[in-house]
Amino acid sequence: MATQRKRQNFVLALNQMDAAWVSFLKDKDFYDINYSDLFTGLWLSDAPVRKQEAVTFMRHLGVQTAKKYLDHAIEKGLVEEIPDPNDGRAKRIRLSAPLKAGLEQFFDRAIDLFEKGLKRG
Predict the structure, then answer these.
(1) What is the mean pLDDT of the segment spanning 14-42?
(2) Residue 14, exposed/middle/buried by CB under 10 A (0-12, 13-18, 19+)?
(3) With contact defined as beta carbons under 8 Å apart, do 92 and 81 qualify?
(4) SS3 track for 39-74
(5) Burial code of 63-100, b = ≥16 C-beta within 10 A, e = fewer?
(6) What whole-number distance in Å separates Cα of residue 21 and Cα of residue 102?
(7) pTM to 2 decimal places
(8) Assigned CATH for 4-119
(9) How far apart are CA 113 and CA 107, in angstroms?
(10) Can you tell me the distance from the alpha carbon of 110 to that of 90, in angstroms, rounded to the nearest whole number?
């Protein structure tokens, strides 16, 4: 079982991670947890996904609202919409190269914060 000190260090690391997320994205529109779900879901996929699948990454939203979130991310250039090579009518979704690189830097920072925080316990 974790000690009270480890729990406190975890919360401090979590708060620092949140601050790093805000600093990385720079646009308050994308501080919403649903964008985190979208971006990390796309990153975990490691390949373009169908638009319908990208919408499901935002599991706390209804389909119509999730589509609006996705469209907003596309409009801002954080996510790219590309043709589906297997279906001319469908679109695939992927992270923009700058967002993917930024996410990976953020992940590295978050891992470092948590490792240091838990060692202090």
Answers:
(1) 89
(2) middle
(3) yes
(4) HHHHHHHCCCEEHHHHHHCCCCCCHHHHHHHHHHHH
(5) eeebbebbeebbeeebbbeeeeeeeeeebbbbbeeebb
(6) 10
(7) 0.86
(8) 1.10.10.10
(9) 10
(10) 35
- Residue scoring higher pLDDT (82 or 7): 82
Segments in the chain forming alpha helices (H): 4-25, 33-45, 51-56, 63-75, 97-119
User: Residue 73 pLDDT more than 90?
Assistant: yes
And the tokens for 69? 């979130």
Q: Domain segments of the chain: what residues?
A: 4-119
**Which residue is it, tokens 């373009």?**
48
What order do you get walking across the sheet with 87-95 strand by strand? 49-50, 87-95, 79-84
